[in-house]
Design brief:
By secondary structure, this protein is an alpha+beta fold. Strands 2-3-4-7-6 form a five-stranded mixed β-barrel. Strands 1-5 form a two-stranded parallel sheet. It is globular and about 55 Å long.
Length: 182
């Protein structure tokens, strides 16, 4: 009897961290939904360098900008993200004079806020993010492809509309038809 109690306690202790962890959930959207929700659609090729890493230090001014009013109990590590860089080949939707653009990950500000709350207060939230599955695998380093973006409110740059929001040039005609359809 004691062995089973001990075993139960042991199993429960193993599962508690898992049950408390946040998990990211993805809601898949269609190409039509992606086109409709993207103010900018570009044909691009990876720039040189194709990406950079940004580190954001968490300080009181940033907390105020994000509207975070919770008192942080713990020191929050820097928020680190990869920023993609692309040469614009053609503008399919939207307007831009930029020849080279920088693109932040989808849900950038939300991820930053959740990072701060998780490390600073222990709050663990399981967000639901939009995602898109391209029709085929795309070699982002060695070919032209289409990307779906929205403006970023913080860094004078763009942000992916959804996780995975890129598509093969093979679907350009279909995408242009969807843009015209509105």
């Amino acid at each position: 009897m004691n062995l089973s109690k001990n075993a139960l306690v042991f199993i429960l202790c193993l599962w508690i961290p898992f049950l408390c962890m946040s998990q990211v959930h993805y809601q898949t959207i269609t190409l039509e939904e992606l086109v409709r929700s993207s103010p900018y659609i570009f044909s691009v090729r990876a720039a040189d360098p194709s990406f950079s890493i940004t580190k954001i230090k968490v300080h009181s001014k940033l907390l105020k900008e994000l509207g975070i009013q919770e008192k942080l109990r713990n020191k929050v590590p820097d928020f680190e993200r990869r920023i993609a860089h692309y040469e614009v080949r053609e503008i399919l939707k939207g307007q831009s004079d930029q020849k080279t653009i920088s693109v932040l990950p989808a849900n950038f500000l939300n991820s930053l806020e959740l990072h701060i709350l998780y490390y600073g207060t222990g709050l663990s939230v399981s967000p639901i993010y939009l995602s898109y599955n391209p029709s085929r695998e795309i070699n982002e380093e060695n070919q032209d492809f289409i990307i779906f973006l929205r403006p970023s409110s913080r860094f004078e740059t763009f942000e992916w509309t959804a996780v995975g929001s890129l598509e093969s040039l093979d679907r350009k005609k279909e995408i242009l038809e969807l843009i015209q359809k509105k």
